[in-house]
Amino acid sequence: MAEYEQIKRNASESVQDYCVRFNSVYNEIPDHLRQHVGLAMMKFLDGFDANMAYQLRERELATMEDMQKIAVSVEANLLSKRGRAKEEKKVTVKEESSSMDQLLKKVEQMLERVKLDKPEPQVRNPNFRGQQQLQYRIR
C-alpha cells in the first residue's frame, strides 16, 4: 500500500513502463484493500506531470485500460510537439542571426556616411579666454 501511495512516473520512464509498473503494484494489493477503479484511475493520473495529466483528464475515459492506451498516444503527441517546437526554435534563431547581421551592416554603412558628411571640427584657440580677459582689463 505504501508503494501504491507513493507511485509516480520517473523522469526517464516511458508511459508504457509506468503503466506496467502501476498495474503490477495495483494488482499486488489484496482485493479487500484495493481501491475502486475510479479512484485508481485518479491515482494513475497523479503520477504524471501537470501537462500530461491535464491531457488525460480532458478525455473522461471510462476504464483503466482505455486510459493507459490513450496515455501512450498522448505521450507520442507531446513528444512530437516538443520536437517540432525545437526545430522551429532553431529556424527562428538562424533567421534572427541573419537579420541581426543585416542590421549591423546597415548601421555600419550609416556610420560611414555620417563620418563622410561631417565637416572637420575647427580648432579653437586655447588662449581665446585669455585674450578676452585682457580686453576687459584694458577698459
Structural overview:
It contains 6 helices and no strands. The protein is mainly alpha-helical. The protein has one domain (2-115). The chain starts with a helix and ends with a helix.
- Helix/strand/pairing category: mainly alpha
Whole-angstrom Rg: 36 Å
Q: What proportion of the residues form beta strands (DSSP E)?
A: under 5%
The chain-level mean pLDDT equals 77
Order of helices and strands: HHHHHH
Main pleated-sheet profile: none
Unreliable parts: none
Summarize this entry quickly:
With 139 residues, the protein is an all-alpha fold. The chain has 6 helices and no strands.
Question: What are the key terms here?
Answer:
6 helices; 139 residues; 0% strand
Helix/strand layout:
Blueprint: H1 2-6, H2 15-28, H3 37-46, H4 50-57, H5 64-117, H6 128-138
